[in-house]
Amino acid sequence: MRYLTVALAKGRLADFSIEVFGNIGLDVASMREKTRKLIFTDEKNKLKFMLVKASDVPTYVEYGAADMGIVGKDTILEEGKNLYEVLDLKFGACKMCVCGYAEQPLPSGFIKVATKYPNIAREYFSAKKNQTIEVIKLSGSVELAPLCGLSEVIVDIVESGKTLKENGLAVLEEICGLSARLVVNRVSLKMEKRRIMDIVGKTKEILLNDNHH
Amino acid sequence: MRKWKTHTPEGAFDLLEHACARKRGVEDKITRVYRASGYFEVQTPTFEFYDVFADESGDIDQGSMMKFFDRNGRILVLRPDFTTPIARLCATKYADAVFPKRLSYTGSAFRDGDGGASAGAVQKEFTQAGIELIGQSSPDADAEVIAVTIRALLSCGLEEFQIDIGQAEFFKGIMEQTGLDDDMTERMRRLIDKKSFVAVGELADGYQIDKELKSLILELPNLFGGIEVVERIKTKPLGSRAKRALDNLMEIYRILADYGFEKYVSIDLGMVQGLNYYTGVIVKGFTYGVGFPVCGGGRYDNLIGDYGKGLPATGVAIGIERVISALCHKANAVEEEAFDLPAVHTLVCFGEARETAFKIAEGLRGSGLCVEMWLGGGGAEEYAARRGIGGIVRVKDAETIEIVNLRDGETTETTLSGLLGGDGV
User: Fold this and answer.
1) What is the pLDDT of residue B269?
2) Residues of A whose CB is below 8 A from B199
3) Do A191 and B195 touch (CB under 8 A)?
4) ipTM strictly over 0.90?
5) Is there a single domain that holds both residue A81 and residue A183?
6) Domain containing A48 — which CATH number?
7) Omega of the bond prior to A105 within 30 degrees of 0, cis?
8) Which of A52, A116, B37, B177 has its CA 20 to 30 A from that of B93?
């Protein structure tokens, strides 16, 4: 039997994934140990788990370097890769939003938009709102941009809205809901349908049971 | 030195001797299969007018075409595929030909982009070999191009692969039944294409769709696998358009079974890419070790009409680089022996007897050996050893010729007639 390779987004999402995989009977003991290793193997089920940077998960899966992966919907949208998105894991649910000063409505003309997600921002404003914008790509603390006049609004992930509120900002428009997704390489799903759908099916069951309790 | 002087652009690569030989070997095997079934090669220009490819119904994203201008300011593009130029060629050059027309092609095509949404082309210059069967709309024609493609893949040494067939009309028919508008249909198509099981359900829930029909749409992303997927939807309320599409697909499957290729073929009714372009069967081939399809194609009955003469047509293209990576994967890294790689058998050295040496070299070449002449400078033995040459022939004169077998180190003496037989001519 061939190894199936699973790419996991490092961090909170990987911990959640390990939990889920453990629950459906995969051997994740080696991953629970604190090590600096990046690849872990489940010899019994012929699985390999790789820890990669979140934004790289779609790339590994698209090229087939990993057969499947677990990653946030925000990354999937931003990276725009050619993948199968087979399961919503409902983990880390939050929203992608346009945010700005609470008392000012979203300007309808040309605006500058600061964001960590230039593709999502461009797609939303140009395709959905037919509005010309200039995207300013930042890597963190995006809330600062409107405060210091770098941009009129920002496009960012909103969980509780606490950071926004403390900085005098608010959600102006919701772009879409986000959560963790199970993605599969287009060829792998065809060549290893039985094994992959087995994992998908069991994961789905576990999630359903969790939600009921 | 200028910054990019010693580099090749992203997506374009040098092929060194062995890789090049390997590629030519694969191309040769494939084109031999094509020829044997009556598909003769045509060549179209490497670049053409942008107008040839610019069309709403086109399968190729505008942004992925590599464009430049001629001196009259007209836009030219490096061909992004072969099917479109061949459609142009058929409508303009073969309008009055005897049909069906079977054509094949091999060569480089070009697409720009980061390899993502654009056809998944990792290389911006990539090689395709393919066939088109023009002037026939029967399922037999579709099955034939698929069967020839399967034979071509087998001839390269690929064994474990899977050809998925779907039907463009099936999805179009079902969407027609739902009465959803174009925008909604397109959103649904994208979700099904991503096999986004959950989102398809959420989208369908928001609309008044017949219950049975809705359950069929929810099933769509999952309708792939063996022939049993067709059984699963037999009881669903299919309209005449979807039903015709399904019957057509089944017929193609049965014909392929008669070819003896059943084991390579599976069904994917959720295959909904390029629906503006494909009008019937859609074909995609997969194998281990390559994350992208190794071949693809289908029926495109509306394309040739864009160039002035309506003709039904069907065809499949094979991605040569992808076949090669699949073969390399199969051979577990690269077992060079698995390919016809070039090797020099003999090095001919001479002192004064130049004329005789040339005669010997040509004689050996005539018997199928690859022979190099020693051009002097440094040591012949050392050169031969490093290049992996099998033996050295030292020509002193017609009567004194020394053969050194570098494999076992043995040296034998012979004459011109002894070496080449007869009188040595």
Assistant:
1) 92
2) 85, 88
3) no
4) no
5) yes
6) 3.40.190.10
7) no
8) B37
